[in-house]
Specification:
Helices cover 73% and strands 4% of the residues. By secondary structure, it is mainly alpha-helical.
Length: 663
């Protein structure tokens, strides 16, 4: 069977197998084995074609006439598609294995097969989004992806907060889809054909700029660009953790895929395109991590962190377009390669972190960080895996998050160091450097807070005190993802090799080869230093073990400053730890603080609590939708339910059109 045949088989297996899952009526391991088995077969069938395309650089294409207007049923796997197909397949496969254990803890007795039905249909729709080469087919796959993920978000629909999160997500998804529908109609022109290979470059810079804005709005709503991100911190905490992992790890990347794909079809970019993405990326990155720091719900914090990382990717894409528009090929190449690398790496460590959050919820029944603590002793496997993910998301070597950001830094430094030759690009490079530096510093604050509140210290509640490790089906996928985060950091050229074919397709082979040849020696040195550091660390662990083997090791309390036993009240809370940063950026984070201190020389009690809302939801979208609701209620009187009145409306409209025609 040909590679494209294998890929189409994967789509069929996932679709038919997913639908069949809905007919499972008996709860138990059978439905989980069936659902996860379908995911595994789909991943096994979809991975070889994608890997083959990355290895050879040759696209696999299938096109067939169909009865739907505006072109043909056209599917293709080229290097850019192949990169995203691999990320989607690996993320869905590991999350499905994890989901077998996770869903056992919260069975759906009424429809036990529905989560697996929608999970596999989501998998299939994401594969189709990245391979569709026809506008109608793309929109159909895009809508299927939105609807299936909506039903997964609504898994616990009995809760009012979950229903609100689901409807918020669905509204954002359809507003984005409306922009994409207009975009494809404009790209199709007057030819009546929406096949990608039949579309022509827009006529004039104004039309191209309008299409670019539509692409940013349509794909940015899915990716989580600020201020279009408001659905992420609502939907991710509501969904089951393995679904949150897929949505944040791979689904929001389809927005990045679509933006890169469409922008590459719009012809030569203008400078303001690059500045637009650069500013969006800087705002999303900085405000995303600032919004994450005051959060108390672990998954909500991780959702805002996804907005931050999408901002980093967007900064790289902005440098790509700036360099392309100004003819600075090196800046364009470093920006694009850095973005693609961060897409790859973020899909791994963010999937790991969401799965870790699910394990915490599974073991403690809570995600409130102020009620956690001390889980490192009670859940050591989860704690170590989460530590790897936290280090990776902070961009710390020797983990993989460092590599993609390094490329963006190199491009930015190059633009700034040659400011006389690059002109305005120097300002772009400086903007990227300052933004990345601030984002990185705040990310370290954020994830030291997370790890300290959740895994260090003493338990802050009975739930944390009685925490337990999840089953092997849950911690094995986390272990594999943690290992990949370390391997792709220690073997940095390996990750670059994965994204290189897509970079060559978008940049051209000579430029991509030149930049990669420039970066490879540095990557090899970084990898070598990382490997040496890991080896030394392992040797020290072995040496310590040997030295202790001949000695009697006893456990005794440390110097306790006069306290008999440690108490959770002696520890920082999430609110108190975050307070200095929140106070410093109070005008941007805008948390609501509540502080109490008892009176007298020996106050009986003191407390500090904070509650952080979303800046754009509070001050932009809520007033906007309240205004729309007011107008809609005012116009509601036009709906009288009387047919005669509706006929009158039609007659008035026809008369108005005739008068306009006469004039």
């Amino acid at each position: 069977m040909t590679s494209i045949g294998l890929f189409l088989s994967a789509l069929c297996v996932l679709t038919l197998g997913g639908i069949a899952s809905a007919f499972h009526r008996k709860p138990g391991r059978g439905v989980a084995l069936w659902g996860a088995g379908i995911t595994a077969v789909g991943a096994i069938l979809s991975l070889p074609p994608a890997i083959g395309v990355l290895r050879t650089g040759k696209a696999a294409v299938f096109s067939h006439p169909w009865s739907v207007p505006f072109g043909t049923f056209s599917v293709a796997v080229d290097p850019l598609s192949a990169l995203f197909i691999i990320l989607i397949s690996v993320g869905c496969l590991l999350s499905a294995v994890y989901g077998m254990g996770y869903l056992e803890d919260s069975p759906n007795d009424r429809h036990p097969g529905s989560p697996w039905c929608f999970f596999n249909l989501l998998f299939a729709s994401m594969l189709l989004v990245t391979s569709a080469r026809n506008g109608v087919l793309f929109i159909m796959a895009w809508e299927a992806m939105s609807l299936t993920s909506f039903f997964l978000v609504m898994f616990d629909h009995e809760k009012a907060s979950v229903r609100e999160a689901g409807w918020t997500y669905l509204t954002a998804a359809h507003l984005g889809a409306a922009c994409l529908l207009v975009l494809f109609l404009l790209m199709g022109g007057g030819g009546g054909n929406l096949d990608f290979d039949r579309m022509t470059a827009p006529a004039g810079p104004a039309m191209a700029g309008g299409m670019f804005i539509l692409a940013v709005l349509g794909f940015g709503a899915k990716a989580g660009f600020m201020p279009l991100h408001v659905w992420l911190p609502e939907a991710h905490p509501a969904a089951p953790s393995h679904v949150s992992a897929v949505m944040s790890g791979v689904m929001i990347k389809t927005g990045i895929y679509g933006l890169v794909r469409i922008v590459s079809m719009l012809g030569a970019p203008a400078l303001w395109w690059g500045w637009t993405l650069l500013v969006i990326g800087a705002v999303s990155g900085i405000l995303g991590i600032l919004s994450a720091i005051p959060q108390h719900n672990l998954k909500r914090l991780l959702a805002y962190s996804s907005v931050e990382n999408i901002g980093i990717i967007c900064i790289g894409l902005g440098l790509w377009l700036l360099g392309t528009a100004a003819g600075h090929a090196e800046l364009a190449a470093f920006g694009l390669i850095g973005s693609l690398l961060h897409v790859l790496n973020h899909s791994l460590f963010k999937t790991l972190l969401f799965l870790g959050a699910g394990a915490v919820k599974h073991g403690t029944r809570t995600l409130n960080m102020n009620r956690l603590g001390g889980l490192g002793k009670r859940m050591p496997k989860t704690g170590l895996a989460f530590l790897f993910g936290a280090a990776a998301i902070c961009g710390l070597p020797p983990f993989n998050g460092f590599v993609g950001e390094l490329f963006i830094y190199l491009g930015s430094f190059g633009a700034v160091s040659h400011v006389r030759e690059t002109g305005i690009l120097g300002a772009g490079g400086l903007t990227a450097l300052l933004s990345l530096g601030l984002i990185g510093a705040l990310a370290v604050v954020c994830f030291t807070l997370v790890y300290g509140m959740v895994f260090s210290g003493e338990p802050r509640s009975p739930e944390a005190a009685h925490a337990h490790e999840p089953s092997a089906r849950m911690w094995v996928p986390m272990t594999l993802l943690a290992a990949l985060c370390l391997i792709l950091g220690l073997a940095a050229p390996l990750g670059v090799t994965v994204v290189a074919p897509a970079a060559r397709e978008l940049l051209g082979k000579p430029l991509a080869h030149a930049v990669l040849a420039m970066a490879y020696p540095l990557l090899v040195k970084i990898s070598l230093i990382g490997v040496i550091g890991v080896i030394i660390s392992l040797l020290l662990v072995v040496l310590r073990s040997r030295l202790q083997s001949a000695r009697r090791v006893e456990k005794a309390p440390t110097w306790d400053c006069g306290y008999i036993a440690p108490d959770s009240r002696m520890q920082y809370t999430a609110s108190s730890y975050a307070l200095p940063v929140v106070d410093m950026f109070g005008s941007l984070a805008r948390p609501r603080l509540k502080f109490f201190m008892g009176g007298g020389d020996f106050p009986e009690g003191a407390s500090l609590s904070s509650r952080a809302g979303d800046l754009f939801r509070t001050y932009l979208f809520s007033p906007l939708f309240r205004c729309i609701e007011t107008v809609a209620r005012a116009l509601h009187g036009l709906q009288q339910g009387r047919n005669q009145l509706y006929v009158l409306y039609i007659a008035i409209a026809v008369l108005a059109l005739l008068l306009l025609k006469v004039r």
